[in-house]
């Protein structure tokens, strides 16, 4: 028995133009990058926990207790880990609520603008969370919670919009094959995020910590 028409050579590809390919790739990598940003956060939790819990007992550098105490957010790594878990819960809850809202907004507004706004704004929130607060040495649990709530709402624009765009461009014929390939975007994003985080983590937090230690050393009295 011969193969169904959909699997015959040239039958599926002949239905699509280069516009379909562009739409497929753009939506694929858009959602992959959103997943990559989530994966990087989970991969740097240990480093964030250490960053938030400096201790006078830290053997890497000898500093006065009052200097360490002026730079810590949590008294122990366990409390920092608990707070990071709370951030995950906050993100998932806001993301779930945002999916419903984003679906309604996407039906009423231009999908491209909604998706672009969500991705760019989410990138800005992640930048503020991980970089700007470190540059300013401003650590606040309330700020982190607010940022992660906003991040969940913004990232929720991704899934409804990319699915709607794909549904508009690809008809019923061959949709199973197309969406089967396209659905790998989440896994690709997780792999990409893990690779990126592991490749730059040794530079990011260590460099920022060295810079902060340099500033801290300037605060230490040198004596006569």
TrEMBL record:
Highest taxon in the source lineage: Eukaryota
Pfam families in alphabetical order: MFS_1
Transmembrane stretches, start-end: 12-34, 80-101, 113-132, 138-165, 177-201
Coiled coil regions, renumbered to chain: none
Topology class, membrane: Multi-pass membrane protein
Compartments where found: Membrane
SUPFAM superfamilies: MFS general substrate transporter (SSF103473)
Keyword Lyase assigned: no
InterPro entries listed in its UniProt record: MFS, MFS_dom, MFS_trans_sf
GO cellular component, one term: membrane
Residues annotated as domain Major facilitator superfamily (MFS) profile: 23-224
Keyword terms of this UniProt record: Membrane, Sugar transport, Transmembrane, Transmembrane helix, Transport
PANTHER family the UniProt entry points to: MAJOR FACILITATOR SUPERFAMILY TRANSPORTER 16, ISOFORM B, SUGAR PHOSPHATE EXCHANGER 3
Family the entry assigns: Belongs to the major facilitator superfamily. Organophosphate:Pi antiporter (OPA) (TC 2.A.1.4) family.
UniProt-recorded name of the protein: Solute carrier family 37 member 3
Organism of derivation: Equus caballus (Horse)
The organism's taxonomic lineage, starting at the top: Eukaryota, Metazoa, Chordata, Craniata, Vertebrata
């Amino acid at each position: 028995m011969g193969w169904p028409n959909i699997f015959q050579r040239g039958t599926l590809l002949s239905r699509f133009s280069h516009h379909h390919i562009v739409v497929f790739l753009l939506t694929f990598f858009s959602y992959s990058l959103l997943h990559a940003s989530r994966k990087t956060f989970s991969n740097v939790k240990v480093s964030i926990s250490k960053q938030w819990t400096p201790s006078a007992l830290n053997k890497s550098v000898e500093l006065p207790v009052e200097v360490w105490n002026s730079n810590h957010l949590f008294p122990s790594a366990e409390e920092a880990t608990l707070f990071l878990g709370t951030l995950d819960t906050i993100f998932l809850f806001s993301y779930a609520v945002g999916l419903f809202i984003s679906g309604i907004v996407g039906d009423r507004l231009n999908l491209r603008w909604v998706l672009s706004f969500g991705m760019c704004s989410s990138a800005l929130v992640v930048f503020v969370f991980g970089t700007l607060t470190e540059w300013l040495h401003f650590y606040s649990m309330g700020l982190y919670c607010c940022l992660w709530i906003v991040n969940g709402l913004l990232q929720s624009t991704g899934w409804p919009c990319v699915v709607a765009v794909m549904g508009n461009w690809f008809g019923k014929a061959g949709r199973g094959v197309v969406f089967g390939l396209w659905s790998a975007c989440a896994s690709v994003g997780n792999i990409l995020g893990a690779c990126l985080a592991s490749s730059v983590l040794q530079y990011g937090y260590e460099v920022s910590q060295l810079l902060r230690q340099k500033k801290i050393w300037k605060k230490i009295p040198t004596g006569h």
